[in-house]
Amino acid sequence: MAVATVEDLSFSYTGDSAPALRGVSLAFEPGEVVLLSGRSGSGKTTLIRALAGLVPHFHGGRFSGRVEVGGLDTRKTRPAELAGTVATLFQDPEDQVVFGGVTAEVAFGIENAGAPPDEIPGRVRAALASVGVGHLAQREIGELSCGELQRVCLASTLALEPSLLLVDEPTSELDRDGAALLLRLLRRLAQERGVAVVVSEQRLARTIQVADRVIVLDEGSVRLDASRAEALRWYETERPACLTPLRRSDAQRTPGETLCRLEAVDFRYGDGPLVLEDTSLELRRGEIVALTGSNGSGKTTLAKVACGLLDPAAGTVERSGRVAYLSQDTGRFLVRERVDEEVSLTARSNGAALSALRALGLVGLEGRHPRDLSSGQRERVALAAVLATEPDMLVLDEPTRGVDPEARRRLAALLRMETQRRATLLITHDDDLVTAVADRVIELGEKVDRVAA
Amino acid sequence: MRPAAALALLAALAATALLADHWAATAVIATLLLGVCLRAPAARRRPYLVGCAVTAVGVLLVTPLVVVEGSHPLWTGPVVPVLGQLDVTREELGSAAVQALRLAAVTLAFAAYALVLDHDSLLRSARFARRSALVVALATRLVPTLERDVHGLVTALRGRGLEVEGLRGRARLMSPLVAGSLERALNLAEAMEARGYGRPGATRAPAPAWRVADRFAVAGAALLVVVGVLWL
User: Fold this and answer.
1) In A298-397, where does DSSP find H-type helix?
2) Which of A145, A334, A360, B128 could cross-link A384 (Cys pair, CB 3.0–4.6 Å)?
3) Which chain A residues have a beta carbon less than 8 Å from that of B183?
4) pTM
5) ipTM of this predicted structure
């Protein structure tokens, strides 16, 4: 019997003319891992919200059709009452943390569900152990790395012992090993506990390997609902670009003059340990350098020192030309109320702003408020705003986070096309992007336990 | 000491600082609370201590100009519309110092609450008004979150070649900051609802029992307020 069923569901957010979901009908069986895929803004997050009952209860809007989870009609049952049957791991773990300590955080959902008090500590320990972070029980949330926090949030949802687990873009902030570990964990949960797991993901290539079934959404409608094997065949014919690795479109070129040189740089935050120690780096016009390494290895710190956003404790930094830096999670830090104003704010010229909007596929969204866009679209707005400054040195920190395969491909092509104009430093966990665009790769070793930046 | 007992002590110290007439008593309390705040890491305590110093100094400077008291003038200034003749007397200065000390003590008590106490335990030990306690705990977290958002915004703009300088530059960040806070609050509310918050029949993990020291601390807090009212 299906854990959840969706019948002819259509939904529009208040104030939006276009529906986010149109006539969606689906069923989710126990023990299966379902990959929910589609472009940015295709309705993946809205479908997850509908399965959690948050649409329409929390978000409002026009809702038609029927969603049943564990035999409960979500229109008649509040999301809080569905908790326990369904659990959701949201896209940004930082935004779902209520308490300051790990134990209290994991206990929160169990307490709300009305579990007997004597059972709560045991369930907290079991949930933490099941995701391999039992040792973090006494830690403060603020001390955790991205990967650790993601797993603590997953433990919080598992502690509810749900029959339906909804996971929205779980690997977007994780390094390669962290993402692989999380996906294996989701697979194991489905197999061992019979949980129906629905994962919304942009990074298809790695997620599809753990999925039993793939659903593709397109402008709010189900374009494909098929087994993994069928889905792979469909992608090969319909959207080959989504699964085939990005390819390099040009040969490596000879770099020009040096635009940035770091020599024997040390850096620490406050009185903390050294995040960078005796680190050197050279960036030359015409080359793309990828900076890789696990979460917490100091990549962002090194990039900020190279840009002049942080001053080193020791060593020398030389720079020339205009520098632009796209920070991590930059979609949060947009300051204007229209997309075109945001991009024009620091653009070198109107032409540069228009060209950046076109290059990032943002034509048609100029009049929208950036905060009304999906996270992937916001990231593209931020990227356009940085590119419009026409820098000599461009530093991009995780530019493909939450970005769909098509936009990612466009970004790779853009970076290669404009290589000669500038020196580019790319911080990313996206190996495919590195292969496609980087002329040099620098891998940082692990220096600190947490991302201090 | 359990956080609830420590909170009672902090509240008693703040109340005594407000009630005491002797400036020396208020100064001792403020110094004691400053000592507690200094136990927190430097980066975390900085915004609280700066806020405390700014408000206390503000009160010290403004009070003598708006209060009319005493007969020993130290300085006589111009006539200002609405306020009249500006002057500063010895008595006004003394009164301003006491008010500034009181404000500093209360602000430091809040800073100690925010910096040193375990808010999770405090919230979980709340026997009544748990929702209100949760609101207070979340509001306490707002200060570091806002600080991080400001830093993120400034860094993102500097990364685009736009320096945020001066009061005017910072003021321009208000709108995106408020929008960001509202968005964060909505995301949190959504996540809390999805985790069953507000559902009837919620339970609580067993809390550790109160020790003798905790009971003494609460009794001491009550005694402190009484002493403050009667003798300080």
Assistant:
1) 299-307, 339-345, 350-359, 375-387
2) A360
3) 371
4) 0.77
5) 0.81
